[in-house]
């Protein structure tokens, strides 16, 4: 039988261990105006060891946010601009013949970094996308006959532009499932926009300093796993996921013809991990239903397959998730 957990003691431990997040957020906010939810999601991915797909029109500070996060943590950052002529070797590396040594030597690609920004991932062909996604899943890369482990922490932050379809290669559903979170970014408010203008036409650009070490991030990840999730929370997560697979069991029969396939077990795992990371962000040692609701859309929106009927009726996965969260009983 499992030992009873001292929530008070755990809370104090988490509060102490998560204090650095305020410093990190403060540093990021020097550069990022108004995108609070996006910054939170980047930190959730960092704490839960999950990759993130950011979707939004150009100019919403997606690239800037990722770069700022890498600068605020004393870590390696690399950016890969995905284009239709990109090759897998441009991402993972290749073997080059050394005349001096008279043999092939491995040259590592830009994927060997703590933070990898895959800019406009839907611009490159499937072969390149799958090379990156394999590295994300296996956390290692094989060049020729040598296998190299990737850096730890290793986080892929991919961006895609939803408005252009010409010259793009949409990520297959099975591959999108590898991303822990799919974050859709909206426009800033009027006040935030004014602040963005001031900041960008001013004389000095804010200087981002490394305020957190990679070692702190590793410790925080281990601590995040210690956050307590009650069985009631586990039941709540499985109910949400099962409602996408068997809507009729949850009095949501109207969605049966609209859902082609429901969320996979990967959704349940990621909901639990993201819920723990969100509680950690809030300096709390236990998960509450609000944590699950807060991360639900980002974890689930790309894991529900819609039928042509849903598209014809202009129903999106967010609409279905909204209804599920309103219907499934909250513990």
Short description:
The chain is α/β, with parallel strands linked by helices and 331 residues long. The protein has 2 domains: 36-198, P-loop containing nucleotide triphosphate hydrolases (Rossmann fold); 227-327, Magnesium chelatase subunit I, C-Terminal domain (Helicase, Ruva Protein, domain 3, Orthogonal Bundle), CATH 1.10.8.
What would the keywords be for this entry?
15% strand; 14 helices; single chain; 2 domains; 331 residues; Rossmann fold; alpha/beta; Helicase, Ruva Protein, domain 3; two-stranded antiparallel ribbon; 46% helix
Instruction: Please state the oligomeric state of the protein chains shown.
Output: single chain
User: In angstroms, what separates the terminal alpha carbons?
Assistant: 24 Å
Identify the strand order in the major beta sheet: 2-5-8-1-9
Average predicted local confidence, pLDDT: 86
Tally of contiguous helical segments: 14
Judged by helices, strands and strand pairing, the structural class is alpha/beta
- Low-confidence residue ranges: none
Describe it.
By secondary structure, this protein is α/β, with parallel strands linked by helices. The chain folds into two domains: 36-198, P-loop containing nucleotide triphosphate hydrolases (Rossmann fold), CATH 3.40.50; 227-327, Magnesium chelatase subunit I, C-Terminal domain (Helicase, Ruva Protein, domain 3, Orthogonal Bundle). The protein contains 14 helices and eleven strands. Helix 3 (36-48) packs across helix 11 and helix 12 (289-300) runs antiparallel to helix 14.
């Amino acid at each position: 039988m499992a030992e009873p957990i001292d929530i008070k003691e755990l809370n104090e431990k988490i509060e102490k261990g998560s204090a650095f997040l305020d410093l990190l957020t403060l540093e990021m906010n020097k550069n990022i105006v108004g995108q609070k939810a996006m910054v939170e999601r980047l930190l959730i991915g960092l704490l839960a060891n999950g990759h993130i797909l950011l979707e939004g029109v150009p100019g919403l500070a997606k690239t800037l946010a990722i770069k700022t996060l890498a600068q605020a943590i004393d870590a390696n950052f690399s950016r890969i601009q995905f284009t239709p002529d990109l090759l897998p070797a441009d991402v993972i590396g290749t073997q080059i013949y050394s005349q001096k040594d008279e043999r092939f030597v491995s040259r590592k690609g830009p994927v060997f970094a703590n933070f990898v920004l895959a800019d406009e991932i839907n611009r490159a062909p499937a072969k390149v996308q799958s090379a990156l996604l394999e590295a994300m899943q296996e956390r290692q890369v094989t060049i020729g006959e040598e296998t190299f482990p990737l850096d730890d922490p290793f986080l892929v932050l991919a961006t895609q532009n939803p408005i252009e379809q010409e010259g793009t290669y949409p990520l297959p559903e099975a591959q999108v499932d590898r991303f822990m979170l799919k974050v859709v970014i909206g426009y800033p408010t009027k006040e935030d926009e004014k602040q963005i203008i001031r900041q960008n036409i001013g004389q000095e650009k804010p200087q981002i300093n490394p305020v957190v070490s990679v070692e702190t991030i590793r410790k925080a990840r281990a601590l995040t796993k210690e956050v307590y999730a009650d069985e009631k929370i586990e039941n709540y997560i499985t109910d949400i996921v099962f409602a996408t697979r068997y809507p009729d069991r949850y009095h949501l029969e109207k969605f049966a013809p609209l859902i082609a396939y429901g969320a996979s077990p990967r959704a349940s795992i990621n909901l639990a991990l993201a819920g723990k990371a969100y509680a950690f962000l809030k300096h709390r040692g236990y998960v509450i239903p609000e944590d699950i609701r807060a991360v639900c859309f980002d974890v689930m929106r790309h894991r529900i397959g819609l039928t042509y009927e849903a598209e014809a009726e202009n129903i999106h996965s967010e609409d279905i998730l909204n209804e599920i969260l309103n219907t499934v009983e909250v513990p």
